[in-house]
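Example for tutorial group B:
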């Protein structure tokens, strides 16, 4: 039996604007993910796990026809309420599981899933469904938190030294390299690539942001003049693009395989 919170409302999600490096990370992830979908007039785009609908609204403003698929009743209801406050045509909202999308094969020019794949209990089946509903010449765009990032590795190493070598008590609360309780999969580059390549011909694989979550970096970049801080964030982001295994977020773009390989029934934990 599947036990899933259908009233999830993102109250436990990290705020996007609390620190300078967080703002940069989420803005870059959003612009890169939505840009890879190539939205525009005449295009049909599906936003999987659309949440409150922020990305679906942004895609709709490009002129594309947009569908937001989200299982949470609370978030889908909020998105519909927001539709009444936006001018012009709104996205279409559908309550749907990511691994059982209620659309015909090849229904969309692009499918995007930003920051949600590790929340799915059957992520590879979800990727298979995204590939199925995408046109053969269309694209599936995935943006996933990387728990094998440089920041996660350094933070874990520092805590090991602190606790084992120095004998100090463990820090209270969840560390940023710990998978949240509502996540099913601890993605890194190797696992994401393995699952995606069973369903997609990979065309683009890059990283977004570097060093997010390291307390010293967060404090340091927050104290710099705005222009200097932006330059430093962009410089590290340029490195992340070339070395996605170390990046804070992995962006993957691929075309559907026809036919796709059979998906695994269980998530890779």
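The residue assignment follows.
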């Amino acid at each position: 039996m599947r036990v899933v919170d259908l009233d999830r409302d993102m109250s436990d999600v990290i705020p996007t604007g609390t620190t300078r490096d967080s703002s940069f990370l989420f803005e870059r992830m959003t612009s890169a993910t939505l840009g890879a979908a190539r939205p525009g007039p005449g295009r049909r785009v599906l936003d999987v796990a659309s949440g409150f609908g922020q990305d679906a609204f942004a895609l709709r403003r490009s002129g594309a026809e947009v569908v937001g698929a989200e299982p949470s009743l609370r978030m889908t209801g909020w998105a519909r309420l927001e539709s009444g406050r936006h001018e012009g045509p709104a996205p279409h909202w559908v309550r749907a599981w990511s691994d059982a999308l209620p659309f015909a094969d090849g229904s969309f020019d692009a499918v995007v899933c930003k920051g949600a794949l590790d929340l799915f209990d059957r992520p590879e089946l979800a990727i298979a469904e995204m590939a199925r509903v995408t046109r053969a010449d269309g694209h599936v765009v995935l943006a996933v938190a990387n728990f094998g990032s440089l920041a996660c590795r350094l933070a874990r190493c520092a805590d090991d030294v602190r606790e084992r070598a120095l004998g100090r008590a463990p820090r209270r609360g969840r560390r940023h390299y710990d998978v949240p309780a509502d996540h099913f999969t601890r993605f890194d580059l190797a696992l994401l690539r393995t699952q995606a390549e069973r369903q997609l011909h990979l065309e683009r694989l890059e990283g977004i942001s570097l060093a997010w979550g390291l307390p010293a970096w967060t404090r340091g970049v927050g104290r710099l003049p705005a222009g200097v801080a932006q330059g430093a964030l962009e410089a590290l982001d340029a490195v992340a693009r070339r070395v996605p295994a170390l990046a804070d977020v992995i962006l993957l773009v691929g075309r559907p395989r026809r036919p796709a390989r059979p998906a695994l029934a269980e998530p890779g934990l």
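The chain has eight helices and seven strands. Compare this with the pattern of hydrophobic and polar residues in the output above.
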